[in-house]
Design goal:
Strand content of chain B: under 5%
Shape of chain A: globular
Structural class of chain B: mainly alpha
Largest sheet of chain B: none
Number of domains of chain B: 2
Low-confidence stretches of chain B: none
Helix content of chain B: over 70%
Strand content of chain A: 15-25%
CATH class of the largest domain in chain B: Mainly Alpha
Number of helices of chain A: 7
Radius of gyration of chain A: 19 Å
Largest interface: A-B, 30 and 24 residues
CATH superfamily of the largest domain in chain B: MetI-like
Bound molecules: adenosine-5'-triphosphate, magnesium ion
Largest sheet of chain A: 6 strands, mixed
Radius of gyration of chain B: 27 Å
Order of helices and strands of chain A: EEEHEEEHHHEHEHEEH
Mean pLDDT of chain B: 90
Order of helices and strands of chain B: HHHHHHHHHHHH
Number of helices of chain B: 12
Distance between the termini of chain B: 58 Å
Number of strands of chain B: 0
CATH architecture of the largest domain in chain B: Orthogonal Bundle
Number of strands of chain A: 10
Helix content of chain A: 25-40%
Shape of chain B: flat
Structural class of chain A: alpha/beta
Strand order of the largest sheet of chain A: 6-7-8-3-9-10
Oligomer: heterodimer
Chain lengths: ~260, ~325
């Protein structure tokens, strides 16, 4: 079932700081240690502004750590590469390219377009954008743009796919469909998935493990194993119990932050 | 059985075959001009031989406008477009009519500097081959200089917009040299180049180069960083980031630069031709002016106006073609 067993991510004492315009240092990620196995489906969940996107950017190689190590299959990540695809929080389609051309972009710059033209069409079908191949991004709805961005990352067959709230703009029905499609691709390809989401149900439905992060500076609050077979019924007692537990952890982490503020 | 009133569809059918009075206005205006021209006697002070050209022109206009009016009866598309433009066309014909009255019929204006329409038309009739030749020379010079300037401008614009090093060395140079109107270089260009053609081509290139460079580089340095980030997570190398991301993203700005350069290139072309380049439409105007043949000067001006506006229209078409993806986005 699994094609490849590469795509393992390891973070050791990972730290990332930003310097604010007023000169103060903001610690976005502090001392994160995690080992993500090849082919694992991981969700990152945590309050807004805690550093989830920053973590994905570090893995993608768009930002450098200020301390610690970040390894892909044992090799330090030094810059971006197509083997780590990233679907941004904001779709950022290229406005001057059609949907088709956007999705084909990765293949074209890697000069593999001629052999894999069919793949672009397959991806378009997969994300339900048939008939919109020739549309420009400004003609798409927010959800369609997000799906196109997902297809654009998938067409490259990355070892690791980083997803930053990819289904945030979709209606409940499309979202569930896309979740199933994503699971199917994941099972077919054995891609390592790291997905940021605010939707606890989505995290439970999809993930092998859920990493719950604490408010800034982001530390790992806890890692939860989801020990349920797939497909997962969203109304099973196990599901609901897990959901209650995660919400409680998030709530507790939030409260602690409040207490810190008052101190 | 007959129904009273019409359904929406029937109403539309009636509208479709309806005749629009506006479509006859240009014809009426042309007929009026022709009647004035034929029936009102020329000024007694006007001693030159009468010419047939204005009559021919008006007759032609009447024929064409009648054909358009007739077509308008059958095609809704033609009717709408023609009816929309008809008042402007009529006003323009009226203006010609008034001009004819002022020059030929009443001689209100000095005859040497303000020839009547007949005399200007006569220039086209007699001198068209030579005027076309001059136009050819002008276009050759313009296209040569323009192409060099636009390509060079885009190249330096990309280098300066993309690379810090280039920006460090070249930007000050652009800032100092760029704003000098290229015509100010005429004295130097004329002695630095083997031929006046080369000198003028250089000046035109310079005129186009500056705005193209500035707007290309500013366009490229203003491209959202996230586009570069996305492209690098998709496997793009530097070369792709320049040509597949930076350049298309900066295209709207580059076009602004090219349009500015186009205006500057027209000015430079005319100046160069009036200052020494042999042949060319600017040279023709200058030469005819020296000979006090103002009818020829006007003919030259008309040719320039038509040619330049045609070039601008073509450029707009090209831009709209390339920037289709911007449709719906606010345009400058
Ligand atoms: N380029 C940057 N410069 C300065 N500060 C930054 C930068 N990027 C992120 N930050 C800061 O780092 C912190 C974490 O940001 P990040 O975008 O990772 O949050 P997030 O968890 O993805 O939030 P959200 O769920 O709202 O998307 C924030 O406080 C943010 O202000
Ligand atoms: Mg984020």
């Amino acid at each position: 079932m699994v094609e490849r067993l590469t795509g393992e991510i390891r973070a050791e004492n990972l730290r990332k700081e930003f310097i604010r315009p007023d000169g103060q240092t903001v610690v976005a990620i502090n001392d994160v240690n995690v080992a993500i196995k090849a082919g694992e489906f991981i969700s990152l969940i945590g309050p807004s502004g805690c550093g989830k996107s920053t973590f994905l950017r570090l893995v993608a190689g768009l930002a450098r750590p200020d301390g610690g190590f970040l390894l892909l299959d044992g090799v330090p990540i030094t810059g971006p590469g197509y083997e780590r695809g990233l679907v941004f929080q904001d779709p950022t389609l290229f406005p001057w390219l059609t949907v088709f051309e956007n999705i084909a972009f990765g293949l074209k710059v890697r000069s593999t377009y001629h052999d894999k033209k069919q793949e672009v069409q397959d991806m378009i079908r997969l994300v339900g954008l048939e008939g919109f191949e020739k549309a420009y991004p400004h003609q798409l709805s927010g959800g369609m743009a997000q799906r196109a961005a997902l297809a654009r990352a998938l067409v490259n067959h990355p070892k690791v796919l980083l997803l930053d709230e990819p289904f945030g703009a979709l209606d409940a029905f499309t979202r569930m469909n896309m979740q199933d499609e994503l699971l199917r691709i994941w099972q077919e390809r054995g891609t390592t998935m790291i997905m940021v989401t605010h939707d606890v149900d989505e995290a439970i439905y999809l993930s092998d493990r859920i990493i719950v992060m604490s408010p800034r500076p982001a530390k790992i609050e806890c890692i939860i194993n989801v020990e349920m077979g797939r497909p997962r019924g969203r109304d099973l007692p196990d599901f609901l119990r897990l959901r209650a537990r995660i919400l409680q952890i998030l709530d507790f982490a939030g409260k602690r932050e409040e207490i810190q503020y008052y101190l | 059985m007959k129904r009273i009133g019409h359904t929406y569809k029937e109403e539309e059918m009636i509208n479709r075959t309806r005749f629009d009075l506006s479509t006859l206005v240009p014809t009426l205006s042309a007929v009026l001009a022709l009647l004035v021209h034929l029936l009102v006697p020329n000024s007694p002070r006007y001693t030159l031989k009468p010419l047939p050209y204005f009559t021919i022109l008006l007759a032609g206009v009447i024929a064409v406008t009648l054909v358009l009016a007739a077509l308008s009866l059958f095609s809704q598309r033609v009717r709408e477009r023609y009816a929309f433009k008809s008042w402007f066309i009529a006003a323009f014909l009226l203006l010609l009519n008034l001009l004819n009255i002022a020059t030929l019929k009443l001689m209100l204006l000095p005859v040497i500097y303000f020839p009547n329409p007949d005399r200007i038309l006569k220039v086209f009739a007699d001198d068209w081959a030579f005027i076309l030749k001059c136009l050819g020379y002008s276009l050759r010079l313009l296209v040569t200089g323009y192409a060099i300037g636009a390509l060079a401008g885009m190249t330096t614009g990309i280098l300066v917009g993309w690379s810090r090093k280039w920006s460090y060395w070249v930007n000050p140079l652009i800032k100092v040299i760029g704003p000098i109107p290229s015509t100010a270089w005429v004295p130097i260009a004329l002695v630095s180049f083997p031929t006046t053609f080369a000198a003028s081509a250089f000046l035109i290139a310079l005129a186009v180069w500056f705005p193209t460079t500035v707007l290309t580089s500013s366009g490229i340095s203003n491209v959202q960083n996230s586009y570069f980030e996305v492209s690098s997570t998709l496997g793009a190398k530097v070369i792709h980031k320049i040509f597949k991301v930076a350049l298309p993203a900066a295209a709207p700005s580059i076009f602004v630069g090219i349009f500015n350069g186009t205006g500057a290139s027209f000015i430079t072309l005319m100046t160069a031709e009036m200052m020494g380049v042999k042949y060319g439409i600017g040279w023709y105007i200058n030469w005819q002016k020296d000979m006090l043949s103002y009818a020829n000067v006007y003919a030259g001006l008309i040719v320039i106006a038509l040619t330049f506006s045609l070039i601008i229209t073509l450029l707009f078409r090209v831009r709209d073609r390339i920037l289709v993806w911007q449709k719906g986005v606010i345009k400058w």
